[in-house]
Amino acid sequence: MVQPDLNIICENMLLSEGFDQARMLAKKMVTLYRLAKEQLSRQFHYDWGLRALKSVLVMAGTLKRGSPDLTEDVVLFRALRDMNSPKFVYDDVPLFLGLMADLFPGLNVDRVGYPEFSAAVVDYIRSEQMVEISWQVDKVIQFYETMLTRHTVMVVGPTGGGKSVVLNTLAAAQTKLGRTTKLHIINPKAIPLHELYGVLDPVTRDWTDGLLSNIFREMNRPLAEGKDERRYICYDGDVDALWVENMNSVMDDNKLLTLPNGERIRLQNFAAMLFEVGDLQYASPATVSRCGMVWVDPKNLGFRPFYSRWIKKIESVEQAKQLEVLYDKYVPDLTEWVMEGLFQGEYETRPKMVLPVTNLNMTEALCSMLSAMLALAPEADGKQLEAIFAASVAWSLGASLLDEDRKRFDVLLKKLSGMGGSDASNVSISAMPGNQKNTIFDYQFQCA
């Protein structure tokens, strides 16, 4: 099997982009990718091949022409870091930065700034009453940077990481800056293949248009003169070879979608394809190598921002403060125990769930329970508010646990509350329901 000589290809591309020290920089670049492939974790969305190198080289050329006063090693360092950082999982970021520091000793370069775009992102987040998180703002900027060199980008990560927020924020920020952005969202796995791409009747030769082929044709119609617009089609669903292999010719430099009836539709420069996907377990290497990758990790987001956004809706300032205190008292420790089996630094047997849920799912359920119960007792405070919170915690964080693990959850909940338990049929708000015979799950809270 013939393999491309990456050193020669990188050197020639760097020379064509105007780099004088092309040979030395090409060697560093190829060495970095080889070491990264060997030392970083194995992820389905990682690609260390020629297409990945090419996108970095194009970005380096753009940066060199935009900042002619910078030295060539600084330009390449910035391109390598900024083009690769978006795709790394949480644990691989320090490893990659360590490799960069070894190959480019003494260099510490600031990120490329996009002040207007960053301001538009922050304005949108605030207007939607979301919690402003620097990591999430940076992820939107990384997404924007990736789209400067790729016309196909995948936003990858488990549920609850904020992928949809990143996509919608990018579209809203670009619209705010005068570049109207339209998102066409479809789930390609929701319909059969012939309804997605269309079907040609083998007898009558009649053509029936598919959902994707129709949207793709419409979004690539020419723009009106003087109109600045971006049109994106977003595939929100699993990526597998069954349907996505037909898109490979669109993802590469040809940008051509060929339909079963022979029609060819070119992806225009103002259009792009986006994927919102949990993982790329079933995607082929040919598909992965053609796309820019942005990894959105739930570890970075956590579950606190959802609660912080919900609590802004509480009208009573005093009640909101008490709810913040109660959250810190109960939720972090119990969530960690449910998800990891870790309680206040001590490991136990991890509890089993009837249905797997994420920490964000549990926080959403907690907020829904609190909203419903506070609607029945809007003036609740002190002990009554804590009783409402404890009942909501039990039926949100502990709702999916098996019976045996619910008993363990009940013990930990009482331990955090600092209150004694009672097996009486009616328990006052000064005690926790359940003791020897019963648990909190055997009681119903009466708001009146």
pLDDT under 50 segments (min length 5)?
none
Determine the strand fraction and express it as a percent band: 5-15%
Structural class: alpha/beta
Helicity level, as a percent range?
Answer: 40-55%
Give me the number of helical elements.
19
Compute the CA-based radius of gyration: 27 Å
- DSSP summary, beta strand count: 13
Can you list the strand order of the major beta sheet? 2-5-8-1-9
Shape descriptor = globular
Assembly type of the shown chains? single chain
Terminal CA distance: 77 Å
Tell me about this structure.
Helix 16 (317-340) runs parallel beside helix 18 (382-394). The termini are far apart. The chain contains 19 helices and 13 strands. The strands form five sheets. A five-stranded parallel β-sheet has the order 2-5-8-1-9, sandwiched between helices. It is α/β, with parallel strands linked by helices and 448 residues long. It is globular. The longest helix has 24 residues, at 317-340.
Quick summary:
With 448 residues, this protein is an alpha/beta fold. It has helices at residues 6-16, 22-39, 50-66, 72-84, 93-103, 115-127, 134-149, 163-176, 193-197, 211-219, 241-244, 248-251, 285-289, 298-301, 304-311, 317-340, 359-376, 382-394, 403-417, and strands at residues 152-156, 180-186, 199-200, 207-208, 229-236, 256-258, 264-266, 271-277, 292-295, 342-343, 346-347, 421-422, 432-433.
